[in-house]
Each structure stands twice: as C-alpha cells, then as structure tokens.
Amino acid sequence: MQRRQFVTIAPRLAAGLAAPALVRHAFAQDAGISSKSLTIGCSASLTGPLAGFGRDIKQGAEAALAQINARGGIHGRMVQLQILDDGYVPQRTTENVQQMISQGSAFALMSCVGTPNNAGILPMIEDAGIPYVAPFTGASSLRKGARNVFHVRASYTDEVRRLVQRLAGMGLKDIGVVYLDNAYGREMLEDSTRFLADQGLKPLVQVALATDGKNLSDVLAKVGQARPAAVLLATAGAVSVELVRGLKTNNPGVLMAGLSVTLTSEGLKQLGDAGSGLALTMVMPDPTRAKTALVRDYQAAMRARGVQEFNLGTLESYTNTRVLAEGLERAGADPTRSKLRTALAGIRNLDLGGLVIDYSGQAPYVGSRFVDMGVLNGAGRFVG
Questions:
Q1: CA-CA 20 to 30 A from 194: which of 127, 153, 174, 302?
Q2: Handedness of CA 244, 250, 253, 257 (dihedral sign)
Q3: CA–CA dist 146, 285 (Å, integer)
C-alpha cells in the first residue's frame, strides 16, 4: 500500500474502530429504554420443578406493572416485563441473562429464580453494571457486597434460624433435616446444623433429596428409620409435595417445618389436607388478610387482572416490582443505570404499607428482615 493511500484510509479506519466503543457506551446507557417505554428483564422457571415460582413472579409483576402503567407509568414511560424460561437450569439462566445483556433488551433485571441460577449470573451482572432488584433467593452466600444487586427478601439464614428456634423452643431434640441436593439445599443444611448446635443439638438424620425426586423412597426410608420428632424441610418446589405426603404417611405425628420456598402456591393446592399442620416461614405478610395497605394494594391489583386467588409468591413479586418502581421514580425523567443504582441505594425506611424496605447505603444491599411463621390448614391457608 502506498503512503498516500494509507494516510487517506487511516482516519476512516480509526473512526470505524472507535465507533463500536461509542456505540457500546450509548447502548449500555440506553438499553431497554425509549422515550415511551422501559423494559425489565427476568429469567425464571416457567417449566420444570420450580415452575410455580416462575408463574407467580410473572403474575405478580404484571399485576403491579398494570397498576403502575394505569397511573401513567413512570415519568411517562410504560414499564413492561420480559421474562424468559430457564426451567430452573443454571446454564439456561446464564444464557438468558447473557442474551438480554448482549441484545440490550432490558434496562434492569428483577427476580431471577434459584440459588445456583443466581450464583451463575451475578458475576455477569456486576461486569455489565446492570441494576438487579430482588433475586428470588435468600442464600446468604450470594449477599457478599455486589454493588448492582438489591435484595428485597430476608435471607434463608434468617428463616432457618427462626425455624430452629421455634422447634427447639417446643422442647424438641430429635430433629431431622431433608435438604435439596444442590447449592441451595447444602447451604441450608449448613445453616440448620449451625443453629441446632447453638441449641446444643445436632441433626438426628440428614438426607439429600434429588431435585427431581428420583431418590424419594430412599429418603423416606432413612427418615423412617431414624424416627425424628420433627423434620426441617430445606427443599424447594414440586419435589416437596410428595416429600410431605410421604413423611406424613410413613411418620404419623411427625412435625414438619419448611422455608418460604419449600412449596409453591400450586404445591400447597396439590397437598390439600396432607399439608395441614405444616409450618412455613413467610418473608411477606399473609396475602389473604387485608390488614396492611400493601396487601390491600396487592389484592386490588390482582382483582383488576381478574385474579381472585392470593398467595405469597405473587405478593412477593408484586412487592419486588414496587421496590424497583420506587427506584425508577427516584432516578428521574432521564434515567441511566448508574442513576437507578444510586436511587435504589438511597432508599431508607420506605414503608410500602406494612413492609419496610431500607438499604444501608453500602453493599450488600438487603431491604427487608421480615420473617414470620404460619401453620397451614387443610385448605392451604395460614391459621397462625
């Protein structure tokens, strides 16, 4: 190539090489947002063992967004949800989030489901600098200071502590633990063992249950041989239904206590009378009792969508959407991801009407410490 040709071409070449960086910068700021709309991304299990959670998230978020958009949206923008199914498979979650980030289809993320699933995407979210509100997991191992992640629910550690304290407070000493054979379940086993030790106890029996339930008969046999007075259920999703049924059949009179994610709303329906007496932690107020403004607003939003059944999953998703919407309001009429992140971090003592959200101003950001406990009746409703 002659020098004159090179000199002529070089400025055009340099401009061409520089353009992608400029495009990437503008793209990063404007992804998922226009003058009229703003898109929130989510990867959840709409199929598979945790499908009930995914469907609750979709229904609760859409009810909240319909309510928000009916009032004019946020700074004139209609807010919409893009939810992709991952079947509770961590690799699919990673692919879904990577797709949303690379295609620029979402301004922020909300409520991706599962402990192992979130473990895979959090590094990507930090690298991309995309705000992420309310991961649908309470794993303490995932609350280590990420600057883009804003948890809403209390931690599983808080839930397990409450369960163990309740069981030990009843004078029970022979307590078994059945845990899901994945990252979530193993972390819950560690928490359970630690809090039992604080009470001078150790698990009478501890058994891992496959996520697809293929070893359920073996699990039930081991628990039956140990004959515990109570079983702590560190399981989640569809597999918990047959586990509860089996324990109740094989171990009449055994007390069972589980976490907020042990059963989906669909699972509670499937259990029917078999779920009577099961104790579960709750990280949201009782969705069926309109004692608080939050629950009343939620019920109104659901009814406006033609839904007359209320459950903890849809209430949690509704609440998560409200928290994200508060951040977007505070980020102003010309939001960027940086502005949204700052706005969320600045939330202090936000009373949603019976549930207070308070971020400390520094990571890890955890908005709520609310943990309650209820006992189910045969209709799948909490009686105390």
A1: 153
A2: negative
A3: 27
Instruction: State the Cα–Cα distance between residues 323 and 133, nearest whole angstrom.
Output: 8
User: pTM value?
Assistant: 0.88
* 259-272 pLDDT tens trace: 999 999 889 889 98
The predicted-structure confidence for 196-221, as pLDDT tens digits, reads as follows 999 999 999 999 999 999 999 999 99
User: pLDDT-derived band of residue 15, with 50, 70 and 90 as boundaries?
Assistant: very low
Distance of CA 27 to the CA centre of its chain: 28
Which amino acid is residue 119, in one-letter code? A
Domains of the chain with CATH codes: 37-153+290-369 (3.40.50.2300), 157-282 (3.40.50.2300)
pLDDT of residue 148: 97
Chain mean position to CA 186: 18
